[in-house]
Design brief:
36% of the residues lie in helices and 19% in strands. The protein has 339 residues and is of the alpha/beta class. It has three domains: 77 residues, Orthogonal Bundle (Arc Repressor Mutant, subunit A), CATH 1.10.10; 123 residues, Response regulator (Rossmann fold); 115 residues, Response regulator (Rossmann fold, 3-Layer(aba) Sandwich). The strands form three sheets. Strands 4-3-5-6-7-13 form a six-stranded parallel β-sheet, with helices on one face. It has a six-stranded mixed β-sheet with strand order 9-8-10-11-12-14. Strands 1-2 form a two-stranded antiparallel sheet. One of its GO terms (molecular function) is DNA-binding transcription factor activity. It comes from Arcticibacterium luteifluviistationis.
């Protein structure tokens, strides 16, 4: 077998070993590789694609584990099984790569199992980059799974999204207004979510005299979060303030701070010791999106968050069951010592 039958894209976010696995399975499925055919050596693949031997070994070991290839001492690797049931090919477009997005990716991959080959790309909240990726990968997929979250340029992206076959489209995390037709979605209604979560914790939060939302300018986070925050404060007659940069503000007793960006949480935590104020008593902190570390910082930071693993799992279920329903993903508040 020539290395030309293998395809590895250095710009893809899909791990290279997984691209190697997917590429070989696709060649087997379409008859370009047959039972008994020899695979390129580890050195040949490593040299041809400028990837490490460890990466190639990991890909080949995955194929051996799944009983598609075998190794013969002195002869190399051979195809031993040509019955590939990988009937799904997914184009996955995420706005960014973060710990939360990785949870979505991992649970989606786990749910789809060996039935799917996934090509994964990051467009960095850039609508132009998103459109370029979609233009270059608009054919040959069974499903298109996208997170449509742009700093600007929604209309440009929307035109391309609406050209996709809607029975193959799954929108996750953020719903983009203007998508037509019947398509599947697992999403967060951001405005309602933050309103409901803060309302649930009202008895705990009402000891503070003002709530401060830290929402940076040009943030990729939906403005719906800000509107839900404003709606809550108005409905509960809670004094509030919205700031762009915590470092330009003074931390004051009686204030409850809500951050959406992880960087702003770090800045806030850095400022607290000099203030002499005690978190959970003099001031409060609520942080957007749960992470494992937030359970331990300052004896626990209160978070409001969706379940990202469940989001990926539900997206996988929609694909496997060929459903076109819209599902709101659960959103909860976890009260801890910081509030």
């Amino acid at each position: 077998m020539s290395v030309k039958l293998i395809s590895i894209n250095e710009f893809s976010a899909t791990p290279k070993y997984q691209q190697l696995v997917n590429s070989i399975l696709e060649s087997i499925r379409f008859g370009r590789l047959k039972k008994g055919d020899t695979l390129p050596s580890i050195n040949e693949v490593s040299y041809g694609f400028e990837i490490s031997r460890i990466t190639v070994e990991k890909g080949y070991n995955e194929l051996r584990k799944r009983n598609f290839i075998a190794a013969h001492p002195g002869k190399g690797f051979f195809v031993i099984n040509d019955q590939v049931e990988q009937d799904l090919k997914i184009l996955l477009l995420f706005n960014k790569l973060s710990a939360h997005k990785k949870q979505i990716y991992d649970s989606l991959v786990a749910k789809l199992g060996n039935r799917a080959a996934i090509e994964f790309y990051i467009y960095n909240n850039d609508a132009t980059q998103f459109c370029q990726l979609l233009e270059n990968h608009k054919k040959g997929y069974s499903h298109y799974v996208i997170i449509p979250n742009f700093i600007e340029g929604d209309e440009q992206a929307l035109k391309l999204i609406n050209k996709l076959p809607k029975d193959q489209l799954i929108v996750i995390d953020k719903m983009l207004d203007g998508i037509t037709g019947k398509f599947a979605a697992v999403y967060q209604p951001f405005e309602d979510d933050i309103f409901g979560a803060l309302g649930e914790a009202w008895e705990t939060l009402k000891k503070y005299n003002r709530m401060v939302l830290i929402f940076p300018e040009n943030s990729y986070y939906p403005k719906d979060i800000m509107q839900g925050f404003i709606n809550f404060c108005n409905s509960y007659e809670f004094n509030y303030k919205i700031i762009n940069d915590i470092r330009k503000s003074k931390i004051r007793p009686g204030e409850l701070y809500l951050n959406v960006m992880e960087d702003d949480l770090v800045k806030l935590l850095d400022m607290i010791p000099a203030s002499g104020l005690k978190v959970g008593q003099d001031i409060g902190i609520i942080s957007y999106n749960e992470t494992p570390l937030k359970k331990f910082i300052l004896n626990g930071i209160t978070t409001i968050s969706t379940d990202f693993s469940l989001m990926g799992e539900k997206a996988g279920e929609l694909i496997l069951n060929n459903k076109k329903e819209h599902t709101k993903n659960p959103f909860t508040i976890r009260l801890r010592a910081s509030s």
